[in-house]
Amino acid sequence: MAMVLKALSSWLITEYSGIYATYTSGFGESDFQQIETQQHTIDFYFYPKDNQYLSISGEYYGNSLSDNDNNYFMNLGYQFTFEKPKMDLNISWRNILDTDQYINVNNNQYYNIISSCRLRPSQMLASLKFKL
After folding, report:
1. Distances (CA, A) of 37 to 26, 41, 81, 95
2. pLDDT for 74-129, tens place per residue?
3. Rg of the Cα trace of the chain?
4. Is 111:90 a contact under the CB 8 Å cutoff?
5. Strand ranges for the chain from DSSP E
6. Are 100 and 75 spatial neighbours (Cβ–Cβ below 8 Å)?
7. Among residues of the chain, what percentage have pLDDT more than 90?
8. Cβ-Cβ contacts under 8 Å for 128 (sequence gap 6 or more)
9. Who's near 124: CB < 8 A, 6+ residues apart?
């Protein structure tokens, strides 16, 4: 697994993580199938002002076993902090690409597990956080 966190400036931070794995299943001297899986995540965090925060994230999941072998995700978030009264306004847009299904593959020398998850459609959410 590779992970990199880098502050490019005082207002921009980026983070990347990635995994690539390959496995060949078999029995004795016979190889049955070569399986490749990978996962990549990249995040950008913008701080245009002291009281504002913008995040953009993207994810890729790939495998060589399923018919739906490429899965892409993207999210966007924004936060504005009010000084008086002390409140946080959060606006987020989840599943921007409206991906409807996610396929995950786990494997070792004894088994292959393929799981499928149905996802919520693209959605926006606004919330206000404050203390009483």
Report:
1. 17, 14, 40, 22
2. 999 999 999 988 999 999 999 999 999 887 777 666 677 778 889 999 999 999 99
3. 20
4. no
5. 2-7, 12-27, 30-46, 52-63, 70-82, 87-94, 101-107, 112-118, 123-130
6. no
7. 52
8. 87, 88, 89, 90
9. 91, 92, 93, 94
Residues 6+ apart with CB under 8 A from 29: none
Residue 68, SS3 per DSSP: coil
* Strand residue runs (E) in 28-69: 30-46, 52-63
* Residue 108 three-state SS: coil
The model carries a pTM of 0.79
Tokens, residue 15 = 């983070």
- The residue among 80, 66, 72 whose CA lies nearest residue 98 is 72
Task: Determine the Cα–Cα distance for residues 21 and 62; give it in Å rounded to an integer.
Answer: 10
- Per-residue confidence at 60, pLDDT binned at 50, 70, 90? very high
